[in-house]
Amino acid sequence: MKDNKYFLDDRPEKISYSEVWQKFFNWARAKSLWVVAYGTGCGSIEIPPMVTSRFDAERFGVSNVGTPRQADVLIISGYLAVKTLKRVIRVYEQMQSPKYVVGLGACTVNGGMYYDSYNTVNLVDQYVPIDVFVAGCMPRPEAILAGFAQLMKKIKEGRADGWKQYLDNLDKYRKNQEKVIKNWKIPNYNW
Amino acid sequence: MWYKILYGLLVVVGGLAYGLLLGGISRKITARLHGRRGPTVFQNYIDLIKLIRKKTAISHGTMFFLAPMFRLLGGIGVLLLVPIVTKSAILSNFSFGGDLIVVLYFMVFGCLGMALGAADSGHPHSALAPTRGLAQMAGYELPFLISVIGLAIAHNTVSLGTLVSAQQGGILHWNLFQYPFLSIAGFIAMLGMYMAYPFSVVMAPQEIAVGPPTEYSSTFLSFMFTGRSLFGVGKYVLFMDLFLGGATNLLEAFVKTFAIFLFVVFITGVFPRYRTEQAVKFFWTYPVVIGLIDFIRIFIK
Fold first, then answer.
1. Which of B209, B112, B103 is nearest to B152 (CA)?
2. B36 vs A56: CB contact, 8 Å cut-off?
3. How many structural domains comprise chain B?
4. Which residue has the higher pLDDT, A71 or A190?
5. A73: pLDDT strictly greater than 90
6. Domain that residue A125 falls in
7. Which CATH number fits the domain that encloses residue A152?
8. What total of structural domains would you count in chain A?
9. CA-nearest residue of chain B to A29?
10. Domain limits at B245?
11. Are the beta carbons of A67 and B215 separated by less than 8 Å?
C-alpha cells in the first residue's frame, strides 16, 4: 500500500509573497470568485436565482464552476448531516489554496431549527474553517450577494485566511472531524 | 534572423491580450442576451491573474503536466503561422510557402494534447470528454478540409500569403463571394472548432462539469486558458485569410476578426446543444453537401 501513490500524503506548504504582489493578487482573487455550490440543504434553492438573470452574480466576477479543483469558494448551503460533512471535507480538501468557504443559513451557524437532531452537525466552524456566514432561514439571494461583498472585502484586506488556519490547525480540525465521523475511510490528505 | 523572435513574442503577447478581451466581450454579450448585466469585459484578464497565482498540488502523471503545454503550443503555432497583415514585416509572422498544411496540423495538435492529458487525469468526466471531442473533430474536419482543399485547388497554392493576394482588388474578389458554398461549409465547421453552442458537447457545461479540464486547476488551467485564447485568435485570423481576403493593415484585421467573432458569439448565445452523434451527422451531411457543390464546380472549371 505504501508505494501506491494515488494521493499525495505530504502536507501542503504555505505561500508567501511580498506585500505589493500580495495586494495585487488579493485584488484579483476578490474580483474573480469561482464557486462550487454544494447543495447540502434547502439553501441550495437560492443559488440558481443568484447566478441567473434576476440577481446575476457574474457581474461581480462570481461564476459557477462544476469542479472543486478549479473553485475558489465552497458554498455550504444549509444544514449538514454527519454523512454530508464527510463529503464537504473531501470537496474542501480537493480545492486548491487559497480557498474560501461561505456558510449559508442559520443551520451552518448553530444547527438552526435542526439543532437537537441526532444527525445534524451544529457548529460547522469546528470542522471546516468558514470565512463568511450568511444568516437567515433561508437567506435570499440579496443576502448571499451581501455575504459575497463581505467576502470580497475580507479577501482584499487579506483577512480571509481560513485556509491558512486550516493548515496551521490541521490536527485540531482532524480530531474534531474524526469525533463525529465514526467510519473515517477517506484518505488523509487528498490535495 | 534574431529580430524575428522578437516580432514573434510581440505577436503572441498582442494576440493573448486581444484573445482575452474577445473572451470578455463574448461573456458580456452572452450575458446581455440572457438579460443580465454580465461581468466586465476585462474579467478574463482578472481570472488569468488569479489562476496563475493559485497553488497547485495535484499530480496525475507525465501527460497530465504536458497537456497544457501541448495546448499552449498548438495556440502559439497557429497564431505564429497565419499572416495577420500581409506584406508587413512584423505581422506577416512566420508565413511561408506551405504554411496552410502546417497550420492544419497545428490545429489538431492542441486538441490531441488535450485529449491525452484529460485521459491521464483519471476523472470519469474528463475521460468521457475526449471521446466526444475526437468524434466531433472527425465530424467537422471533413467539411473544413473540403473547403480548405477546395480553395487550395482553386487557387493552385498551399500558401496563405498567395491565397490572400489572390483575393485582393475589391470585396467581390473575396473567397466568401467567389466560392460561397465552400465558405458556408468552412464557417459551419468553424462553429464546431470553437465548440460554439450547437456543438458544445465537448466541454458541455452543466452536463459533465467542465469537460476535459475537470481535474486541471491553477497554473495548469491558466496555461490552457492562455492556449485557448491564442488558438481562438489564430483561427479567427486564419478564417479571415481564407475567406475574407486577409488584411492590409491592423485596423482591417481587427474589424474582420471581430466580425467573425461576433458571428460565433451570436450563434452561441441562442442555440441549445446537439448530442455527439447528432453533431457528427449534421457535419457529415449539410456542410459537406454544400461544400461539394463548389468543390465540383472548381473541378469542372
1. B103
2. yes
3. 1
4. A71
5. yes
6. 33-180
7. 3.40.50.12280
8. 1
9. B50
10. 2-300
11. yes
